[in-house]
Each structure stands twice: as structure tokens, then as C-alpha cells.
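Form 12-C: Joint structure prediction
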Amino acid sequence: MKRVDETLKSELGRQGIFTTTLQDLYNWGRTSSLWPLNFGLACCAIEMIATTMARYDLARFGAEVFRPSPRQADLMIVAGTVTKKMAPQVVRLYNQMPEPKYVISMGACAISGGPFKQGYNVLKGIDRYIPVDVYIPGCPPRPEALIEAFMALQKRIDAQQLTGTNRPRHLNADEPSEFAVPQFGAHDLQPAKNPAVWNAPLVQISQTGNDGSGKN
Amino acid sequence: MDLEKIKSEVEANVPGCRLETVANPSPSVQHSLRLDPEHAVAVATFLRDAVGLRFDFCSNVTGIDWPPTEVSQKVKVRRLVEGVEQEVDEVQKTTTPGSIEVVYHLFSIELKHGPLVLRMSTQDRDAGVHLPSLTHVWRSAEFQEREIFDLFGVVFDGHPDLRRLLMWDEFVDHPMRRDYIEPDDFEYEPTAHDEVLRRAQQHQSETRPADEGGIR
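Section 2 - Result
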């Protein structure tokens, strides 16, 4: 899709003629009214609440309306520790959100389990079950970090095209909109991860000088 | 608070109860009182209602897992060796069955004294994990006894609502027991070492052979 020449556009604007493309309009609409789901899991939620209040004022970015229902929300901010007992509900809430929908994984716990990574009851990152658009590290991240993530998501949406490989997920009929909700098993969640969404990254583990004793 | 005085007072008023003081050699010298499960409710009710004691507040209930231990001892035994009676060293192994211990911390709000530490032990760690519930004496014990039921597997007889508190109902293990094996649910760590390194290698060799750059 060919974009309108920017100088021509501003020149026309000065003459009182507004030109745009359907793609710009579509992306502008999606970018400027990202309504988050009113949903917090742990201490990160307090920072999320602070972000929406007067000092940081997330409303400047078009996200002032926190929706109490997934049916009306566009953005899920996974703010806090996802316990294994809570994980099915988080996935179910995501499934209930209408397209287009986005996920921000906020804080160390939502990314990887954080300080509870070696525990028995905390999910080691929500990206094992649902696709995540932006990750924010921090424990908890400052409101500025959430705003930064929000702007990163907006930039990402702005760069998307209506057709082609860079098109939004919901315009691709092959991309699923719902993901399998894990079941409570006898020892762990079943399945422990959704292989269609997440696989363990290959980490280059160098064994030179490491005999497993902890000393080099 | 003199523990011996409390002990003799309880023994005089609750017939048949078998109490035992457990000394604490640490600087805190917080000695505790071991109850027998049969008379625990009667003793607890007495401690709550007796005029000079009035332990009206149960601030904390927790559990301790004592796994079965095997102690090998060298014992000198007289025995016939080649027709001659000699003193021979022999290794004797004694196994103590494990138990789960439940600890209650009591305070008196009315008389401003405490803590009084109560202990109760189960018979073993398999079938004999029944203990009487003290929830009817101190209502604040309800959730904490549920937590011990969840994490240690102690069944509190007479508890009004004995369900798992933290883990889901389908879960079968007891995570705070020493022999609990946690699910193998984190596959990598950026700076893996020791046990985590061993696990990471195992996972990576499952997903990708070494010559493709899995493990070096």
C-alpha cells in the first residue's frame, strides 16, 4: 500500500483538505483507544493503578477507560504473579476478549515467575499460554515503564499494515484467537505450556570450566 | 510465664492428659508444651478459659515435617568368633518413623502474656496423619489448619471446612513436605549452574541434538 506523500499531505491540510489512508485511519483508531482490562494480580497492579492516576495519567494515551469486562477490553495488562491456580482464569479472560487484543506482560513474575521461579505454585511466565506483545521488566516496574511499554505497543500497532506479512494477528485467518485453557492436574497444570505459543529458548550453555561444582 | 507451672496446672485440671515440655536451647529459650492428641481439645479449652491463663488468641499455626531418619550406631557386642568369645563392633541401624508436627502459638490479650507454644505430633507420615482440630477453641486457627492440611497433609478431625487453601483440589501432593518433588517446569536460566544446569542440559538434549548447537 502506497502512503500519501507527507509534504503533499501537509500542504493539502493547510488548504483545508484532509487526506488519509484507510490503513492510517484504522491504525489510528486502534492505537488511540486501547482500553485495558481492569485486572490486577499482585503488587504490579498497584503501579498500574498509580499509572492511571493524576500524576502519570495514562488517559493521555487514550487508555483512561479500564473496562471491568473482558468483552469491552482491548488490552490485557498481566500485572503481577500468575499462580498456577490463577493461570486458567487468565487464559480464559484472554479468550473472552474480542479482537483486536493485545497483552502486556508487566513485571518479573508475569514474564518468568520472577522471585518465585523456583517455586511449585507460580507459572513461569504467562507467555507459556498466550501471546505477549510487550514485556516490561522490573519488580515492580515504575509507572514510567508501563507508559513506555504502552507507547511501544502503540508504535507497534502504528507500523502494522492491513495486508501482507506484517498485518495484525486478527486479520490473519490462520492465527488463532483463542488458546487452550490449561487444566488442573495432579502435580502441575496440564499441559504445562502451549507449544503453539511458547517453546524453551535454546540457551548456549558453555561447559568449559564448569564441572558443575559451582567453581570455575 | 513459667511453663512448668502451666503444665502442672493443666495436669491438675484435665485428668488423664499427657503433657511434655520441649526445651528450646537457643537464646530465645522459648520452650514449648507437647500435647497428646486425645486430650488436645480439652487442654486447649482449659488454656483458653482458665482464670490465670486466659490464652484467648491463637496467633499462628504452622507445621514441621520430620522425615524418617536412619541412625547407624556402632555397638560393641560379645559374640563367639571362631570358638572364642570376643568383643566385636557391630553396626546397628535404627529407623525412626517420621511424623508431622503442628505448632500453635498462643497469646493472652486479656492478661497480656505469651507466647505459649503448643506442639502436637502425628503418628507417622502416611495413614496416621490425623490430629484434632482446635478451630472450635480458637476460630483464628481455621485457615491456618487448612493451610497445613494443604501443604503438609495433616487431616484435622473436627475441622468445619477442611479443603485445600492454596493449591487446587485436584492437586495430590503436599509441597512443604521434605520429600516433595516439584514439577520440572522451568527449562532454562541465563546463568545456569548446578541443578538448574543439569535440568537445562536435559531439556535441550530432548529438543535438539548437540551438533545443532544445543549444548556445547
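Section 3 - Comments
Chain B touches chain A through 33 residues (CB under 8 Å). Chain B has a mean pLDDT of 85.
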